[in-house]
């Protein structure tokens, strides 16, 4: 049934240039529209790009090499002029991809990746702004925990003294009982 539907679609669009856009491309396009909101950059990258804009930078090239060697994903935290969190997931070739991409690509091979770069300035500023407001709460929690440990230690000390007194009383009782039994047997 799928073959029939595909042949009908080919027949219908024979005279039109039709592009089938894959999930990696659509993901990058969707995020490029939202880039202005939070500065997150999402793009397709490859070691063998069809377009110069998809050429991998140094980190992406290393990450793509890791993906081609069997790694499932790659991530890094960069401290530069602009701190950012980077992630690269694989874009795997499916049999449908081979209709447009070079025939040398094997199905289920890594064709490239989806690179995500999140600037961290906003998150660092938020953490700095809220650290001092959280400090008294953590100090109170620490003091409460310390008081609980002190209370438990004091009660444990009392219980240990009581336990020692009970053991001493038991030993004294055993000593008296053994004297009574010994006197009764000898007399």
Structure description:
It contains five helices and four strands, in the order H-H-H-E-H-E-E-E-H. It is of the alpha+beta class. The protein folds into two domains: 2-119, Beta-Lactamase, CATH 3.30.450; 121-187. Strands 1-4-3-2 form a four-stranded antiparallel beta sheet, with helices on both faces. A hairpin with a 5-residue loop joins strand 2 and strand 3. The radius of gyration is 36 Å and the shape is elongated. The mean pLDDT is 79.
Keywords, please?
alpha+beta, 2 domains, 55% helix
Distance, first to last CA = 110 Å
CATH topology of the largest domain: Beta-Lactamase
Q: Please count the helical segments.
A: 5
Principal-axes geometry comes out as elongated
List the helices and strands and how they pair.
Layout: H1 2-12, H2 23-33, H3 35-38, E1 41-45, H4 58-68, E2 74-78, E3 84-92, E4 110-119, H5 121-186
Antiparallel strand pairs: 1-4, 2-3, 3-4
Question: Summarize this, please?
Answer:
The chain is α+β, with helices and mostly antiparallel strands and 187 residues long. The chain is 55% helix and 16% strand.
